[in-house]
Amino acid sequence: MRIGIVGYGNIGRGVESxxxxxxxxxxxxxxxxRDPATVSTLSGAxxxxxxxxxxMKQDIDVLVICGGSATxxxxxxxxxxxxxxxxxxxxxxxxxxxxxxxxNAAAFASGKVxxxxxxxxxxxxxxxxxxxxxxxxxxDSYTFWGRGVSQGHSDAIRRIDGVLDARQxxxxxxxxxxxxxxxxxxxxxxxxxxxxxCYVVAAEGADKAEIEKAIKTMPNYFDExxxxxxxxxxxxLDKNHSxxxxxxxxxRSGRTGNDMEFDNTIEFTLDLDSNPYxxxxxxxxxxxxxxxxNEEGQCGAKTLFDVPPAYLSQHTREELLAHML
Amino acid sequence: MRIGIVGYGNIGRGVESxxxxxxxxxxxxxxxxRDPATVSTLSGAxxxxxxxxxxMKQDIDVLVICGGSATxxxxxxxxxxxxxxxxxxxxxxxxxxxxxxxxNAAAFASGKVxxxxxxxxxxxxxxxxxxxxxxxxxxDSYTFWGRGVSQGHSDAIRRIDGVLDARQxxxxxxxxxxxxxxxxxxxxxxxxxxxxxCYVVAAEGADKAEIEKAIKTMPNYFDExxxxxxxxxxxxLDKNHSxxxxxxxxxRSGRTGNDMEFDNTIEFTLDLDSNPYxxxxxxxxxxxxxxxxNEEGQCGAKTLFDVPPAYLSQHTREELLAHML
Lengths: 325, 325
Fold this sequence. Notes:
Two copies of one chain form a homodimer.
Chain A: E1 2-6, H1 10-21, E2 26-32, E3 47-49, E4 62-65, H2 73-81, E5 85-87, H3 96-110, E6 113-115, H4 124-135, E7 139-145, E8 148-149, H5 151-158, E9 163-172, H6 174-181, H7 190-193, E10 194-202, H8 208-216, E11 226-231, H9 234-240, E12 246-256, E13 262-272, H10 275-295, E14 300-302, H11 317-324
Parallel strand pairs in A: 1-2, 1-4, 2-3, 4-5, 5-6, 6-14, 10-11
Antiparallel strand pairs in A: 7-12, 8-9, 9-10, 12-13
Helix pairs in contact in A: 1-10, 2-3
């Protein structure tokens, strides 16, 4: 399979790394809206201008689109699905039905497959939610994120006056996780499930008390959570908080039995040193599935809900039956 | 969907309970090789003789076969796949390729779908293995079972002279689980991963030392493990060990990054009050998928690897996109 990467940020690098290691894939190159001469890839993969994509339609089997959900993917995924099998990691949960409809129209028209919202949430966490719900229809599902860096929350802090840099960790509250595991079927507020830990570099002379207040009262991002703010130097931030770890758990607690007398939990947990590299790895597996679905004649928008798990795997059916089933 | 259950042991009861609660299913009845007059169902579902199946072909959309892997399923699943969409929970790992081939031939000839090896292992644990391998191709997977009752090991103890009853718990060793979670990529012997805890009721006058020795040295079942044997009265066994809890974890530890510099773990854990009722619940979800696959024109043998997860769910595509993705 010949793979192209559109966009070369952290996730694009993750896809590059995963594609280069996949025995059944070849990386054609990276496509960027920046000047290609200014972009150099980690593996030496060639860099092309976004506008060259049209001319290279015959050279690419699947495009992995590594753009942002806010402004890139809503137009880019439908546009590219008009000519290519595509994968994206669209993650604005509330707008997924709209995005799906737009991409579906384009991919149906072109006869290509577009798998949207592939990553770990949405993505593998979505699979954990659907599979655990199917096995335990009478129950409640809970998603805990972290401990990990939320780039959206870090960016929100950086936009405050007097803040030079910041890193925000989302932290699940252990007592909440325990209640779910103990089949208590709790009803949580946002505050009950997660803490927000902020490490902030303030400008010289900035009013730290004001910055702390601005963070803790920020609507949507922080006001509904217990938030801690720790001021650090840029050196400390760079030294102790430069990574992008993440993870979390989807837990479903549900009952079985004639009188619902049996409690059960299903738990799916990720612990990731690098969020973007793991996301890139899942996008790469999804690219394999898109190619195979299209080869068998399918088209239109899909999600991982529509993908037979075998299509994600680089192993043969014989290997899967013998070693993984 | 009109569902029939073949065989009425613990798993058959689990399927009965799950089908009765599924809004999109109707239980036609239970089919047994015993005298139907001697079998009464928990929900009052009608009981038919196994031989009546042929005549009821038009009344059933999917048969869930709840027989044993040793002697029932090897002939029963191919025979019934010759006329029906079927589900089984065949779990003799080493013989899965052979069973798959036999069932596939029958289901292709009849134009029906047969999903084999549906349960939690093989089944949902298999899904955890394939999905985590696809996301982290460079890594190692480990399966821990328990703490839970192994019926095969309990039966093996009961066959020893002087044993009236027994219950065996398979217990994962916490230090081994921790090594995997810590990305140490350990190489384990059987003894490193699991303990075996046995609760045994001895006949009056039986030589307990001999029984304990016979258990601990039993080839395949116990000799490769550290095993504890505790003698209890029948009353104690009935009071404290009458349930069939089980569970366990599939953990994959794998690296991402250009220089494989990032460690990651994916963990899928089940904690089940009742093994057979959970198995019955998964078989029921698989029956839904078999019906849908056959409706769209597919036939032949399948495993959960071949099933788009959405097909297992009772929810509509709109609900899935809005609430689970």
